[in-house]
Amino acid sequence: MKLLVFSDVHRHRTRLEGILQAHQNADMIISLGDAEVKSAYLQARDIVAIKGNHPFDSGVTLEHMLTVEGKKIMLTHGHKHKVRKGIEKVFFAAKLKGATIVLYGHTHVASHHHVEGIHLINPGAVSTSRNHNPETYATITFESATVHVVWHHADTHEPIHDTTLS
Fold it and tell me: Is 43 helix (H, G, I), strand (E, B) or coil?
């Protein structure tokens, strides 16, 4: 199963269209908030949409739990867990819910942390990156017991970094 995961589009609809076009083979598409596109747009593309902190965001819920290939995944934008100040609060929320993977946004910085068996993954931002790296999104592929994460350049769709979760 392949997940396409992005966050913080902030109305960059042309860039988002390119991402969706480049990954038509995704089994599930996830927006982690602050897309700022109409809910009809998200629904027409079967995008699982988390609510971000922007007032014009059309996500439907602040958090959502999924199970993919036996892995419990927590989806959140992250602002309620104050992820800009660190991952501790979102880590403890995931631990309480029994998640082994957390997908979050809000920081505009692509990252991966592995703490006490929980993987905390930020796909970065489709709009403006807040560090020296380009704008990014991620694909997550589940094959048997292997979970492979690839961060992609938001314009060229080329892989920038990848990791295999253990």
Answer: helix
Query: Residue 7 burial (CB < 10 Å; 0-12/13-18/19+)?
Result: buried
- CATH architecture label of 2-165: 4-Layer Sandwich (3.60)
- Helices and strands counted in the chain (H then E): 3, 11
**DSSP state, residue 135:** P
Tens of pLDDT along 87-129? 999 999 999 999 999 999 999 999 999 999 999 999 999 998 8
**Tally of CA atoms within 13 A in the half-sphere of 112 that contains its CB:** 17
The half-sphere exposure of 113 on its side-chain side, counting CA atoms within 13 A, is: 15
SS3 of residue 39 by DSSP = helix
The domain spans of the chain are 2-165
Name, in order, each residue with C-beta under 8 angstroms of 34's C-beta and a sequence gap of 6 or more: 7, 8, 9, 10, 52, 53, 54, 57, 77, 105, 106
Among 161, 156, 140, 160, CA closest to 22: 156
Q: Are 102 and 119 contacting, i.e. CB atoms less than 8 angstroms apart?
A: yes
pTM of the model: 0.95
